[in-house]
Design goal:
Keywords: ATP synthesis, Hydrogen ion transport, Ion transport, Transport
CATH class of the largest domain: Alpha Beta
Organism: Eubacterium segne
Radius of gyration: 25 Å
CATH architecture of the largest domain: 3-Layer(aba) Sandwich
Largest sheet: 8 strands, mixed
Protein name: V-type ATP synthase beta chain
Number of domains: 3
Shape: elongated
Strand content: 15-25%
Domain ATP synthase A/B type C-terminal: 354-454
Oligomer: single chain
Structural class: alpha/beta
Number of strands: 19
Pfam families: ATP-synt_ab, ATP-synt_ab_N, ATP-synt_VA_C
Length: 460
């Protein structure tokens, strides 16, 4: 039964305190009615001390006073209405439509999700094609995986996020596929870029978009990824779809958590973030996966900007513990005009080996990827040597590695914005670039694979 209270006992930024509360529950949603019902807002109970409840106000506490506010406890947690009609729609950070269309009518679900028994998980198999060679070829995204992108301020992660939405597919599979896109703390011009890009490519038809703007209240940001993942789980496990969830930018989510934690007077941990940052990130990331008996899957690509490009910062550091690899964007490659500026050496996909090869991509995929990684690592050694003794003094083999490195960065990695390659084109390009090197240098490829494919791409 909903209970209504008149007045508040304390207001502190986005947090308000209500005393004399009975039968309140943690995470319960409350409705605020301000100035005799002229304005409505939502909040969430985040702490309870005996008969005192601390409430986060999603829309912020501006305009609220201790006397003009009616507070009603709803008796349920944050919920969102779900139906197949949700595809193609755009919502704000807490799931309210902002596309001018009517609200979604359907069964309401708790955005916090249900605990998932680990033994009910199935091992991720098969891959999702992004059309980007550096990802599909070398750090392949597997269905049910969580594979973050580590970026930095000023790097083109927004363009990459839009390209992933526009190009991602299940390859040649005829299974149902959709994307849930959630942006947190984005500026108006970036939000307009996303909307325009998705509309022009036609991707919006199979995308559900959540936009939390930079000028929206900070506590909304804490709900946005949970709302997005609730939609993803519904489409995957009840509508048998394979769902790719893109969350950008998880750094703004963590900073919102730090701000709210500071308002609550909690003791800070590393860099001022709350001590429960790890568990909160894990709560989000672990909602990716495949469940036994379900035909669908939830795959995650969280994007985060590393403050000062520091990969040891708490946000990328903890994210790396939880997820299965990472894709790292590089500032020096971006400075050379290479897009996407993916540095393949620190990038990896730990589940890649289980979703590629014969029956998934092509039988030479793992060997080509291993050889490209190995060759590009030697490029760094050759460049370091050339900086000491000069390029003219290098051996013929080292000069070939320099040639390979330049071609690899400009052709394979730097494929350009909007270029969509299938996996066969990516692997064929890999073979073409490997022909720059002497055949005896290709020591990471099985002899049978080398005999089968090498001559098909000409001789060095």
């Amino acid at each position: 039964m909903a209970i209504e209270y008149l007045g508040l006992s304390e207001i502190n930024g986005p947090l308000v305190a209500l005393e004399g509360v009975k039968d309140a529950a943690f995470d319960e949603i409350v409705e605020f009615s301000i100035n005799d019902g002229e304005e409505k807002r939502l909040g969430r109970i985040i702490e309870i001390y005996e008969d005192k409840a601390i409430i986060q106000v999603f829309e912020g506490s501006e305009g609220m006073s201790l006397t003009n506010t009616h507070t009603k406890l709803t008796g349920h947690p944050m919920e969102i209405a779900l139906s197949p009609d949700i595809l193609g729609r755009t919502f704000n950070g807490i799931g309210r439509p902002i596309d001018g269309l009517s609200p979604i009518n359907g069964e309401k679900r708790d955005v916090n999700g249900k605990p998932l028994n680990p033994v009910s998980r199935e091992y991720p198999r098969n891959y999702i094609r992004t059309g980007i060679s550096a990802i599909d070829g070398l750090t392949t995204l597997i269905r049910g995986q969580k594979l973050p992108i580590f970026s930095g301020n000023g790097l083109p992660h927004d363009q990459l996020a839009a390209q992933l939405v526009n190009q991602s597919s299940l390859g040649d599979s005829d299974e149902k596929f959709a994307i849930v896109f959630a942006a947190m703390g984005v500026k108006n011009d970036v939000a307009d870029f996303f909307k325009k890009s998705f509309e022009e490519s036609g991707a919006l038809e199979h995308t559900v978009m959540f936009l939390n703007m930079a000028n929206d209240p900070v506590v909304e940001r804490l709900i946005t990824p949970k709302v997005a993942l609730t939609v993803a789980e519904y489409l995957a496990y009840e509508k048998d779809m394979h769902i790719l969830v893109i969350l950008t930018d998880m750094t703004t989510y963590a900073e919102a958590m730090r701000e709210v934690s500071s308002s609550k007077g909690e003791i800070p941990s590393r860099k001022g973030y709350p001590g429960y940052l790890y568990s909160e990130l894990a709560t989000i990331y672990e909602r990716a996966g495949i469940i036994k008996g379900a035909k669908g899957s939830v795959t995650q690509i969280p994007i985060l900007t590393m403050p000062n490009d520091d990969i040891t910062h708490p946000i990328p550091d903890l994210t790396g513990y939880i997820t299965e690899g990472q894709i790292t964007l590089d500032r020096s490659l971006n400075g050379q005009g290479i897009y996407p500026p993916i540095n393949v050496l620190p990038s990896l996909s730990r589940l890649m080996k289980d979703g590629i090869g014969e029956g998934f991509t092509r039988d030479d995929h793992q060997d080509v990827a291993n050889q490209l990684f190995s060759a590009y690592a030697k490029v760094g050694d050759a460049r370091a040597l050339a900086s000491v003794i000069g390029e003219d003094e290098l051996s013929p083999t080292d000069k070939k590695y320099l040639e390979f490195g330049k071609a690899f960065e400009t052709e394979f990695v730097g494929q350009g914005l909007g270029v969509n390659r299938n996996i066969i084109e990516t692997l064929n390009l890999g073979w073409k670039l490997l022909h720059i090197l002497p055949k005896e240098e290709l020591d990471r490829i099985d002899t049978k694979i080398l005999d089968k494919y090498y001559d098909a791409f000409g001789e060095n």
